[in-house]
């Protein structure tokens, strides 16, 4: 049986070489399988991500915090200057 397969393969090889175009490259079956696997992996990751996002529970508005009393203005204790000459010298 081995000799029959060897003889048949030897007769088919020249036929395959004649039809082979070296300027045309195609991905073939292996390329399709890899592409399909990547597509399925992406689909599974997106499905899992949506599931994880549904688990998240949060309030969109932050809770109201009590406001601190307003601080007195910084110039409240400074003496009033009529001309403002000291401020211009700095």
* Morphology call: rod-shaped
Portion in beta strands: under 5%
pLDDT under 50 segments (min length 5)? none
Q: What distance lies between the first and last C-alpha atoms, to the nearest angstrom?
A: 106 Å
Main sheet properties: none
Oligomer designation: single chain
What is the rounded Rg? 40 Å
Count of individual beta strands: 0
Order of helices and strands: HHH
The averaged pLDDT comes out at 76
Q: Give the number of helices.
A: 3
* SS content category: mainly alpha
What does this structure look like?
With 90 residues, the chain is mostly helical. It contains three helices and no strands. The longest helix is centred in the middle third of the chain and has 28 residues, at 28-55. It is rod-shaped, with a radius of gyration of 40 Å.
